[in-house]
Structures are given as C-alpha cells and as structure tokens.
Amino acid sequence: MKRLAAVLLGLLALAFLPVQAEDQVTIGSGIVEVIKPGKQDIPIAIPRPRGGDKDTQLLWEVIRNDLEMSGFFKVIDPDAYTEAPDAGIKLGEFSFEDWKVPDPVVLAKTSLSATDGGVAAEIWVYDVPGTRKLGAKRFTAPRSSGRRIGHRIADEIIRLVTGEPGIFTTRIAAVTKASGNKEIAFVDIDGHGVTPITRNGSINLQPSWSPEGARIAFTSYRSGNPDLFLADLVKGSVKRISSRRGVNIGAAWHPAGDKLALTLTSGGDTDIFGISPTGEAIGQLTKAPGIDVAPTFSPDGAQIAFASERSGGLQIYVMGVDGGEAHRVTFQGSHNTDPDWSPLGDRIAFVGRDGHYDVFTVGTDGKGMDRVTQDQGNNEDPTWSPDGRYLAFASTRTGKSQIWMSTEDGRHQVPVTSTGGWSNPAWSPRTDW
Fold first, then answer.
1. Tens digits of per-residue pLDDT, 10-44?
2. Which of 143, 321, 334, 385 can pair with 313 through a Cys bridge, CB separation 3.0 to 4.6 Å?
3. CATH number, span 171-427
4. pTM for the whole thing?
C-alpha cells in the first residue's frame, strides 16, 4: 500500500495548461451530433507526434488505441497520409490541402518535448472540412507518466469532438487471480498500469469506489469471515470496518460519501443495512422475507436498487434510501441480480440468467429493458463508466474471465484485460490522478 500511495501522489503532479479551447464544436458546415459511442465512426487522422523522442511512438500508440476503443472514431491508416513528416502542428505550419486524399473529418496533431525532470505534450485538433481549429491543450508530467499523458490527450480529443471528455483517465478496480489468490487491483482502461491494492493471500471480493475516488471498500476473508475492509489509496492504509457475524458483502457508497449500504446476515436471512465509513451501524433498510443483496444508490442518493427473492425468484427492486416500500423493476426471467445504477440516473444495469449469464439494462420505472450481451459466454458484474456511456463487466467469451468494455447499447465491445482471471470490476469516478 505504501508503493500504491507513492504512485498516486506522483500522478497527482500531472498539470494541465490550456492553450485554447472553444465551447461550440462544429465540423465543416454543421454541428457534430455525436450522442453515443458505437453509432458513428468519425474518420480521424493522427500523425505521429513531432519531437523525435523515443517516447513519441508510445504516445501515438496510446492515443490511437484509446480512440479506437472509444467507439467514436475510425483511425485512418498512417500509410495513407500524404503530408510531409516535418509539417508543424499549429495553424499556418501545415496545409489542409495535404489532407484531402486521406479525407479525415478530424485531424489531431501532437508534439512531445523534454522539460526539466519531465515531458510536455501538446494536442491541436482540427475540423478538416471546415479548415478550422477545434481546440488545443498542453500537458506536462514526469517522464514516467507517458501513458497517462496519452490517455489525457485521447480524452481531450473526445471532449473537443463530442462535448464530453473520454473515460481513459479513469480506472477499474477488480479482482485478479494473477498471484494465484483473489486479490484486488486497479487497471487502466487499456489494460495497462495494473496496481495491487491487496496482497494478503486470501480471498478478496467486490471492490467499491468512494465518490471522490480516494477509497475502496471490499470484502475479504483474510480473518476467516467475509468482513468489510476499507483501503485508503492516498494514505496507503487498509482497515476493517465491519466484522459482524455472517456475511459483510456488496458494499455500495452513497453519493455523498458519508455512508455505505451493505448486505449483512440478519437472523437466518440476509438484508441490506446502512453503515458509516468507520463502521458504525446506521439502520436496517430491508426487512422482507427472502434474501436482499447487492445494493446500489441512485446518483442523487434518494433511492437504492437491490436484488431480492421476496417475490420468489431473484429480481431487481427500487426503494427510498431510508427503506420503506419497494417497487419491482424486472419482470422477465427468474434470476436477475447485481444491479448498478447509471450515473445519468435513467437506467439500471443488471445480470440476468438466460442459459448463460448476460448483462441487461432497464429503466428505473421497469420499462424498456435492453440486452447488452448475448451468446458470448457468461457476462457478469456490470459497472457503469462515470459518464454513463459505457459498461464494463467480466466475461468468459474467450475462455478465461476478462474485463470487457461495451457501449451501453452493446454495439461496440472491446477487451480491457488479456491475462485472464479477472472479475468483479468497479469503474472509478473521475479523479485528478
């Protein structure tokens, strides 16, 4: 954990120095309507960065891979570029005429240079049909943070074209079996940057990010019982906060960060309780017969969704944050669980068993159920990206369990990890590191 804290403090040194940005994004003669990734492949050209440094190839590869993963862009093959390699990146340093043959809609030019103790990168993004600049930005960071700069640049390109930044500077906390045990680690969206959170040689499950992204709650059997622990990623500490008799599983943070919902054993049943981040009991939220598990809060903190057997099979329900009467939102199938409430507030992702386990979404009123995965192995533990445009989940479609990322409608699906043994993903909020 000390090493993890040092990594985080180093990443906090990343600086963002704006050169210029424009609020309204237009391409050619009209406003670009890019609402959801996966529905439109915008042709984009990304020349290799200026600078000649050995790190420029890595920077280019990171940016290109991120944009292809995003589902927004079709990256044009560099072999089709006709511009001279020494052309500049700013207006007046190159000609839009040189881009008529590869015919991109968006042109993203970058440079990389050394600074005292680090590197500086610039990104300039252009509307090629309209021969105009969409925006530019400069980033500085320690040299060891080259991949992070690439992710920052990719997110900025996405912001300038779609109006909202990408998700490549966020991370996913998940369970990994790389050591032979089930440990918690976090990983970048492109599968790199794996950083251990636990190394206790036991079974660790169900990580859950705090709203500010500095703490992760998780269940561990390190003391023999499934207890709830809290990892402080900045301080580098781990402490047990709930060791009540029976299970202490499925923690979910309230958006205010002042309490968690947790599944505890209640007599011979399991129910959902509220506890503080230090472990003090707040109250019992569910009391109906049958198991109640897997809580998730609405973005405004006013409601909570969970899985319950109160009607027979396992189904998804929604109730007020202080308990009370719950209404059912899933009616198809007999086994629906693991809900996760979209940050946009309108939909709930969950896992349904239909021969295999698959990911679905449904409106919070129980209407408009959509399937995200089908006929691709087992797909479990859905988790929303902080912008509500993507879902990550564990999938066995390639044999070993991997983390996959999908647009919320399932049209564009790509792998995040490749080493196998990954499960229980939890997508981080947007953070400064």
1. 433 333 333 333 334 455 544 455 556 876 689 99
2. 334
3. 2.120.10.30
4. 0.91
